Amino acid sequence: MMTETVSPQRFHAIAALEAPIRTKPSNYPEPFFSRMAGRTKRPLGDLFGLTNFGVNLTTLAPGAVSALFHRHSKQDEFIYIVEGTPTLVTETGETLLVPGMVAGFAAGGTAHHLHNRTDAPATYLEIGDRMAGDEVSYPQDDLMAVWTEGRWVFTRKDGTPY
Fold first, then answer.
1. Which residues contact 129 (CB under 8 A, 6 or more apart)?
2. Of 29, 89, 151, 156, which sits with the fewest C-beta atoms within 10 Å of its C-beta?
């Protein structure tokens, strides 16, 4: 039997840990970009040509964070913890997450991020839609983002660009 090599866009199934790691570790401008050190993402949804929502298998090294503390105006987000014990940080408190736990963030809801405060990696699935015009606010940073034409455009809170 002959084996055919297929391009990623033709995959029907793949082992998630075999998916390539995203080459650009963050879309944030500096000085925020470097704060994402220790985070690796495998953009799983892109392998299948998904355009309405994104799916990433993300791993946080010890001490790393998932994103800046943020909230979306239009995008719902959902996470599923695969391995490790990251801490979910929200405006209302903190929750230690363990494998098998899930968390969801409705558009316009609480600001949040994950922080791996352990000495072992933490891996989770993150799922979110790609709704045009989504805006992200960052309560702890002088940063705003708008999803426009398939990419994030970042400005300071006063509207000046980075």
1. 52, 53, 54, 74, 75, 76
2. 151
Cα(122)–Cα(161) distance, rounded to whole angstroms? 33
Rounded to whole angstroms, how far apart are CA atoms 35 and 66? Answer: 10
pLDDT tens, 20-67? 999 988 999 999 999 999 999 999 999 999 989 999 999 999 999 999
The answer, yes or no, to whether residue 2 has pLDDT greater than 50, is no
Identify the CA nearest to 55 among candidates 80, 27, 36. 80
**DSSP code of residue 10:** G
Q: What is the pTM of this model?
A: 0.89
